Amino acid sequence: MTAPWERVKRTLVGRPLRTKSLERQLLPKRLALPVFCSDPISSVAYATEQIIMALTLGGLALLHVTGWIALAIVAMLVIIIVSYRQTCYAYPGGGGAYVVSRENLGINASLVAASALLVDYVLTVAVSVAAGVDAITSYAPGLDRWSVALSVLCIVLLTLANLRGSRESGRGFAVPTYAFIGSVYVLFLAAAWRLLSGERPRAVSADFTIEPLYQPVGVVAVFLVLRAFASGCTALTGVEAVSNGVPAFRRPKSRNAANTLAIMGVLSITMFSGITVLALLTHVRMTDPDHPGRLAGMPAGYVEPTALAQIGEAVLGHGFLYALLQASTAAILIMAANTAYNGFPMLASILSADSYLSNQLHKRGDRLVFSNGILLLATAAAVLLVVFEANSSRLIQLYIIGVFISFTLSQAGMVRHWQRTGPRTPGVRRRQAVNALGATVTAAVLVIVLITKFANGAWLVCLAIPGLFALMKGIRRHYDQVRAATTPDTPVELPGGAHAMVLVSRLGSPALQAVAYAAATRPAGLEAVHVCTDENVSRELREGWERYAPSSVPLTMIDSPYRTIVGPVLRHVRDWLALHAGQIVTVYIVDYVTGRWWEPALHNRLTARLRDRLLLVPGVMVTLVPYRLASGELRAERQPRDATRLAVLARQPTDDGDQAGTPVED
Fold it and tell me: N or C: which end of the chain has fewer CB within 10 A?
């Protein structure tokens, strides 16, 4: 990496950390809550809104069941939290649904769970960022046309924050998370005060009427209620992230993870319940953006705010507290993506270790995070936001299917786990019953979600999950084939000899240096090879070779009537190998070392083509002989100074009290 890019990277990401600093990157509960639980906590900001949107497809007739749907979702949340607390203790190594399914249900079930989780993590980032930008545009409607650009910018900032390390990102995300929690509870206190004072706050949309898209009777009414329940289940997303990330907690890891999960459950349940109650009391009206124009009675130029924004405006007015509520809501909705930024790279690393994803995803970066996984997640989410134009309502239709697939498989796997543990273990039957209830309930919800959301876009997820499953199977098959092919079955046989060929394009110092290097390796035979494509150049080379080149090195001239170079070189190499069975050929090619960004476009183009084609020929080795141009010499001289500067930085303590390490370039 060049020095300018190194400086930019250090400015954005920070100094590298030594491997021994990993223990200091572990999270206490106060930081683990914003890191792992920002998604389920932030989901309360739009879960009620999604319920109301689904119900108003039938006009106002079904809004009275909002509370009952919220109650069912709260019961689901309690069951899932209790179930996953048990997972934290049973599997302290993390991995969540993938590891639980792998050890109890088999490889195929575990890959289905992993595929569902990976897809869901990408959607979590996309939905969270889009919902956060919605909160911004609700407060400042003029920014609505910049939604996509704002969303991509948020992903860039989140990516940079996470590349700096989990501990630093936890500190940065703690402020908006706790600010949102505080703002919502202040909203509850203000609403309680006004209600006790005899006031009845009303939302800006309270007097609007809604034209029904469907008549809410019979089967249609049941379908709309089920669709509202499925939409409201977005409040359950992200719960599994804590069980996936148990290794990131301080000791005792399992207990701290389980306690963090319990705290998150209390916060999510009280906040979701309170927002739903206030939405009913203030008579919030919301319509599905995919079916606009059904609100009657709204003023000209009316832009529909979010449900939480309407509640905040009705209870708090337009003062500082309302601005704080909207700002913290936007912040935590965007920061909620951080749950996926921790879960996706960690799961991808485990899958990589099992050879189901590229081994590059198993490496930790300079800041002891899985940098490649973070970048892959950010890229996929950004593409999704651009394709769906940062429309949170459309994206939510793809959401939660993956969540409930992983929920169901994880809980079913835990039932099998307790069965294997044996009946003599204290409390095993109670734990098994809890997980069995969780598996049954989440499976039922999965069916409901599939039925109600399939035609609205969920079919894309139903294609993506099997596609990812097949991809991971293919990657594992490839790695297995490579291992089988590279495993030695007989003692290695030494070649009968090594012949060196130095490719020479024209007479010059680079070619002569390559010849000298090849001769220093003491090959059995050595020749210089020139492909004749220009008669004048070939003549000058032939005349100068006797004067400047070692007399022991013959010059082989290959005619090329069609002025190609790669083909004649390959034929010459193959012909030599055919005549000398049991021997190998090492081809030496000059490689220019440049120092300016534009110079590689002017050099080494043929070198790369020759190298790639020669490496396909059995019995051929390729050696690149570097020749530094003037700019390359300057670059080489800078390296010792850069190394000294980095060594000084390495001795400086980091924020965690440890010393940073000198980076190793890949």
Answer: C
pLDDT at 392: 77
Comparing 36-296+304-479 with 498-628, is the CATH topology the same? no
- 3 state DSSP class of 615: coil
Question: Domain 36-296+304-479 maps to which CATH number in 1.10.10.60, 3.30.300.30, 1.20.1740.10, 3.40.50.300?
Answer: 1.20.1740.10
Strand partners, 625: 590
Q: How far apart are CA 560 and CA 626, in angstroms?
A: 26
pTM: 0.76
Burial tier of 447 (Cβ tally within 10 Å: 0-12, 13-18, 19+)? middle
* DSSP symbols for 400-415: SHHHHHHHHHHHHHHH
Is the sign of the CA dihedral 199, 204, 207, 210 positive or negative? negative
**pLDDT tens profile 268-285:** 999 999 999 999 999 998
Q: How far apart are CA 372 and CA 374, in angstroms?
A: 5
Contact 205, 58 (CB under 8 A): no
Which residues make Cβ contacts (< 8 Å) with residue 194, sequence separation at least 6? Answer: 201, 315
Average of per-residue pLDDT across 139-159: 85
Average pLDDT over residues 342-362: 88
DSSP-derived secondary structure for 21-65? GGGGGPBPHHHHHHHHHHHHHHHHHHHHHHHHHHHGGGTTTTGGG
Amino acid at 58: G
Does the structure show a pLDDT above 70 at 638? no
E strand or H helix at 165, and its extent? none
CATH 3.40.50 fits 498-628, yes or no: yes
Mean of per-residue pLDDT scores for the chain: 84
pLDDT class of 211 with cuts at 50, 70, 90? confident
Is the CB of residue 235 less than 8 Å from the CB of residue 322? no
Within 10 Å of residue 171's Cβ, how many Cβ atoms? Answer: 17
Every domain of the chain and the residues it spans: 36-296+304-479, 498-628
Locus of tokens 């270790």 = 353
The residues pairing with 27 across neighbouring beta strands, listed in sequence order, are: 249
Per-residue pLDDT tens over the stretch 35-66: 788 878 888 888 899 899 888 888 888 888 99
Running DSSP on this structure, what letter comes out for residue 135? H
